[in-house]
Design a protein that fits this description.
The structure is a homodimer. Chain A is an alpha+beta fold. The first copy, chain A, folds into three domains: about 10-90 and about 155-380, BirA Bifunctional Protein, domain 2 (2-Layer Sandwich), CATH 3.30.930; about 90-150, 2-Layer Sandwich (Herpes Virus-1), CATH 3.30.40.230; about 390-495, Rossmann fold (3-Layer(aba) Sandwich). Helix content of chain A is about 35%, strand content about 25%. Chain A is built from 18 helices and 26 strands. In chain A, the strands form seven sheets. A nine-stranded mixed sheet of chain A has the order 3-10-11-19-16-15-14-12-13, sandwiched between helices. Chain A is globular and about 75 Å long. At the A-B interface, strand 2, helix 2, strand 3, strand 4 and helix 3 of A face strand 2, helix 2, strand 3, strand 4 and helix 3 of B.
């Protein structure tokens, strides 16, 4: 769907707020001026990011995937085989007057051109001519020539071994394939995932953590046989679950997306096979687990001209953001046997599995790939709100399970044993929850601080608490206050924080 | 203490085992030949590593530290200020015959020279002459000249901005100092930590994950005033805890390490102040939480000639490994106001705090810094064992809380509803524990497989289980088997797995 590329007023307000409230600082190194595309997760942002990563781990683990951690740096041989060294680059156009460089396709998309990222260099130049696009910096004319700028971040191992910071985790997840044969005892499916950093030397990235030069990725690789694709035991239990789907055909016929069950989607040939449909379902499960509301998500199939030549099918999970409209946040790909074949060819090693008759074949790979920074941004974007009564009072209405602070503990005053009691409660709760202790300022001010960083529950310990062994619990969104017994706190909060 | 630098038979056996059992693969990219110093954490190793990272997070959080995540890549300006660009390098010596390069200090240490890493270039050359050290590869003579090899891994941002993969997390943790002022509301201590990747372009690293070119670090930075150092409220509650200490004085006088309470150590001036003593205590707590046995740990003070010129005090936490003897696994440093002053000077910004009278001062930094790969290796090294009855049967006797698989679930046979029951139990348990399901091979073989990867508890579901709603639980080290009710499984395992 359409994409807004630069920071508009909505996103400017949000990103300033995220910096002020210790979620995301940058661009870094801020202290030394800052370079586009590098961000720090501050004390609260990092907790939110950890919560996201744990949610991802939990869903993958529950579905039989095992995590691995491959190095970030790999030598040129790997990226030659994967194709990144030859073709992972962006089209750049340079201003003839001020010499600034821009990503040609992104400039055109800002001018309303759709899918310019799939244009050939020639088509890009023709569109620049037709639309008479000038330099956004100085209004000068562009040199009508596309240069290819590699996105690979080069480095050196030892004295002279050419190497690169990986541009994606995926390639590095395929490489230990022979070890997976051992770990899964030669029995497909091999199901693995990786969470880690990746690097892309983008030309002038301008969308906060949605497009940074250093980012965190999560992706799963499911190695299957062709037969498994059409006969996938995990499909049946979820076939009646529904997703909002927008097939290539619907897009071509200008039809709207449609909510349908996996079963129906398979019958209508929206999906080619059960295993792929299940992967699309699983990606949606992960985003639900991260707290993204179902009604903000859409699954969009790539049209043929958007797909890599080897990909049999490809879908995006898109999220409708307030600041950037519909934004691609995850890709689900049927990569066939392309990657294993390439690495077998370049490494001159055999990367195969055996069927029941002992016949060797190259497994297919079904992939779910996404960044963690985008769902992070999506949560902040979607749950950023203002009190109806007072537009200056901002609150982040995170689902409690995702909140960086789940419970705040306040003594009414920092004296008369109230602080001691509050600290005791804090210490009991912090074994199970993300807890924050605060004893400074008025209670009202402490509530506001916690609203602004998305804390769903605040507990206040007052003089009555000392006698009755209870606390006041105050809920963020409704601002309702109730007294509950300290003895019941842990189990009540457990229930609340699963939401 | 003394260090063995290369892989001896003990560590060769262990590292081969860790690869075979899917803990650590490499050096990577194995498929393309492999380059020293890069390793992959396989499905079981990654779980163990995650458990370590979670243990670290928990201890830091419980003591008021907040995690941040700064980018891995930072431009030259940062590393100029930190001093890394000018002085983070290793002394290299080159063979005149075969042209191989070696780390000069490490070669000398292998020849029995102690602390050669603190030698000047001149002293290194003199020692080479005196000891008549020749090339380990070809026995040729060395060129008697030290070259300085930078450990920094260089890259480029955009078209031409010189940048580096960070050689440590620490520097990048100081940089958002101004944001910490906001987050901690201008009230010292500011307590932050970071867990993340760091890179060092070592010359021919040869000690498995103990010295790799890409590794994971964890470190805390505690910003304090000078007054806080001598009056640290968290010290009192732990002052009677004891540690095995080896002060610089004891080392110089050839005395053995001594177990003493923090209180006594402070009285004896082994520590200069309460806050530093508490940091040493905290580092020890973290290593206990990671499962390292107390009796395998020693805290050793740096002698004056080992310390950086600005450091007021520095201690190492060392672990006695079976394969490498006493090995430095953590450093605790009083970095004074050195880093903030340097970054203030280079960035031309004010990095100060205010005392109660509003007077500005530069806070001091107390640091705990360690890699995660070393305690990972230490756990594998220390808990690698063989059955008395059969030396071929290897088991990893991990503490249950650290095990990559805490509980394995086996149906006696994969039929007659035993597998269905087993899967039900698996699904209940996997919400709380790291669980593994296995239905293939004899029960004895399944036990052995789990012993070898350190799983403390195996549950078997047999025909009696269907009637009596119970399972057989088998303990790894004692091999004892007991029947317990399924209804009690979760709470019993909870208790067991906290060990």
């Amino acid at each position: 769907m359409s994409k807004k590329n630069t920071l508009n007023p909505v996103s400017q307000e949000l990103t300033a707020f995220l910096s002020e409230k210790d979620f995301v600082y940058g661009p870094e190194p801020e202290l030394y001026g800052g370079i586009a595309g590098f961000y720090t997760y501050g004390p609260l942002g990092k907790r939110l990011k950890n919560n996201l990563e744990n949610a991802i781990r939990t869903v993958f683990n529950q579905h039989g995937f095992f995590e691995v951690e491959y190095p970030i740096i790999a030598p040129a041989a790997v990226w030659k085989a994967s194709g990144h060294l030859d073709s992972f680059n962006d089209p750049v156009i340079i201003c003839s007057k001020c010499a600034s460089s821009f990503r040609a396709d992104k400039l055109l998309e800002e001018k309303g051109e759709k899918n310019a990222e799939h244009y050939s260099d020639q088509k890009l130049i023709e569109t620049f001519k037709k639309k008479e696009v000038n330099c956004p910096n100085c209004k000068g004319r562009f040199n009508l020539e596309i240069k290819r700028h590699s996105l690979m971040m080069k480095t050196t191992i030892g004295q002279d071994t050419e190497a690169y910071n990986r541009p994606e985790t995926a390639t590095t997840t395929y490489l230990p394939f022979k070890h997976y044969q051992n770990f899964f005892r030669d029995k497909l499916p091999f199901s693995v995932f990786q969470i880690g950093k990746a690097f892309r030397n983008e030309i002038s990235p301008r969308q906060h953590v949605l497009r940074s030069r250093e980012f965190s990725q999560a992706e799963s690789q499911l190695f299957v046989s062709k037969e498994m694709k059409t006969n996938w035991p995990s499909f049946k239990p979820v076939e009646n679950d529904s997703l909002l789907l927008w097939t290539a055909e619907m897009q071509e016929k200008n039809k709207k997306p449609e909510t349908m069950s996996l079963k129906k989607a398979l019958q209508k040939k929206a999906f080619q096979n059960q295993a792929f449909a299940w992967n699309v379902w699983l990606s949606h499960q992960i985003f639900l687990a991260m707290g993204i509301p179902n009604q903000k998500m859409l699954l969009r199939q790539h049209k043929k001209d958007e797909r890599a030549f080897y990909a049999e099918d490809a879908w995006d999970l898109e999220i409708e953001l307030n600041s950037f409209d519909w934004t691609e946040c995850c890709g689900i790909h049927d990569r066939t046997d392309y990657d294993l074949k390439k690495h077998a060819e370049f490494s001159k090693q055999k990367l195969v599995a055996k069927d029941e008759k002992g016949k060797e074949f190259v497994p297919h790979v079904l992939e779910i790939a996404f960044g963690i920074d985008r769902p992070f941004f999506a949560l902040c974007d979607l749950f950023y709100a203002k009190r109806k009564e007072d537009q200056k009072r901002i609150l982040l209405q995170f689902p409690p399970k995702m909140a960086p602070i789940q419970v705040a503990v306040f003594p009414l005053m920092a004296k008369d044993g109230l602080d001691k009691k509050a600290r005791e409660i804090y210490q009991t709760l912090e074994k199970k929850f993300l807890v924050y202790y605060d004893e400074s300022g008025s209670i009202g001010r402490r509530y506001s601080r916690m609203d602004a960083v998305g804390t769903p529950y605040c507990l206040t310990i007052d003089y009555d608490s000392l006698e009755k062994n209870d606390v006041t619990i105050r809920e963020r969104d409704s601002m309702k206050q109730t007294r509950i017994l300290i003895s019941e706190l842990s189990s009540i909060l457990q229930k609340y924080s699963e939401k």
